[in-house]
Automatic annotation (TrEMBL):
Protein name in the entry: Uncharacterized protein
InterPro entries reported in the protein's UniProt record: LRR_dom_sf
Species name: Clitoria ternatea
């Protein structure tokens, strides 16, 4: 026997499977529970529609997962603050941000036909704080995507995507940017990083790697991670490749499949660098140049077997270039 009414104090609800999703959605829309704040819907293959304007005003968080045939009629979801759509809503081709005036957190993953985000009508009133778009093969662009309060932006495995132009103007408060698997970039865009950006991840993107130097000087970036690069580069980074980030404190080099040598000279202009992490570089076995930057306080090496062995043995060709660093950690073991 399925319940026909929720307790008045119910704040969170997880619904799983076609029968339960259809039944409990009907109850929610009809009874409008006043305390329900979080709703999680999953594993429903039925063709159903969620009328956004019939959801209770108390609802702040909505998560939809593995519901390919679910149609989300997002008409005036005035109160929703967090929305996550995972491998669901295949009918969705554009996402209307203007129907979510109080939305702060948005995640869209595996939405097969999604092409674009439609910007809110009143850009200056946008409350968006974080956006993640992931594994959406037909996602193309963000037309004039202005989010004055956005601080975190993740773009993952969307091969057709073009990044929004003029990010420095459209996303003035952005602090965290992660780009995975090669969106399309205009040359002008590469040098238009948001002024408050602090953390930048570039993963599996050959184009961005080749044009890193065009980003120019950026005073705010303190963390840079570059990884999963499959291009044939035997020595990295070449002098002049990395941009001038005067505040950069941490640099992570990860997943360089073909890199054989770390070039010290390509890092010497990073005068604030205090931490260097090197991981999953299976062919890396030498360090070129005089030595790593004198500002370094910590060096971490993991899943890089050739270089690990040379460091543990304190091989003179390697040790003379890293021994000035106070803390050296090789595969979870401190070397002194």
């Amino acid at each position: 026997m399925l319940v026909q009414k929720f307790p008045n104090s119910l704040k969170s609800l997880l619904i799983k499977g076609c029968l339960l999703v259809e039944h409990f959605l009907g109850i929610i829309c009809n009874t409008q529970p006043t305390c329900l704040q979080s709703l999680d819907i999953s594993d429903c293959a039925c063709s159903l529609s969620i009328p956004g304007h019939h959801l209770p005003k108390s609802l702040k968080e909505l998560r939809i997962q593995n519901c390919r045939n679910l149609e989300f009629a997002a008409t005036q979801c005035m109160w929703l603050e967090s929305l996550e759509i995972h491998d669901s809503c295949d009918f969705l081709t554009f996402f209307p941000l203007n129907t979510f005036p109080n939305l702060k957190h948005l995640v869209i993953k595996g939405c097969l036909h999604l092409e674009t985000l439609m910007p809110p009508l009143q850009l200056e009133d946008s409350t968006l704080d974080s956006v993640t778009i992931s594994c959406c093969p037909n996602f193309v662009n963000f037309p004039r995507f202005a989010a004055p309060n956005l601080t975190s932006f993740r773009l993952i495995q969307c091969p057709m995507m073009s990044l929004p132009s003029d990010m420095n103007i459209l996303l003035p408060k952005l602090e965290f940017l992660s780009i995975w698997d090669g969106p399309t970039l205009d040359m002008d865009l590469v040098i238009s990083l948001p002024p408050n950006l602090q953390t930048l991840y570039i993963m599996n993107d050959k184009y961005l790697l080749r044009h890193l130097s065009l980003m120019g000087m950026h005073e705010g970036i303190t963390f840079l991670s570059i990884g999963s690069i499959s291009m044939s580069v035997s020595s990295f980074p070449k002098v002049g490749l990395l941009p001038h980030f005067p505040s950069l404190a941490t640099l992570v080099l990860y997943g360089f499949e073909y890199m054989e040598a770390l070039d010290c000279d390509g890092l010497l202009h990073l005068t604030s660098l205090i931490a260097l992490q090197i991981g999953n570089c299976p062919k890396l076995k030498s360090v070129k140049g005089e030595r790593l930057p004198s500002s370094l306080l910590k060096l971490e090496i993991y899943a890089t077997p050739f270089l690990e062995e040379l460091c543990n043995e304190k091989h003179p060709h390697i040790w003379s270039k890293i021994s000035h660093i106070p803390s050296i950690r090789v595969n979870e073991r401190w070397v002194s």
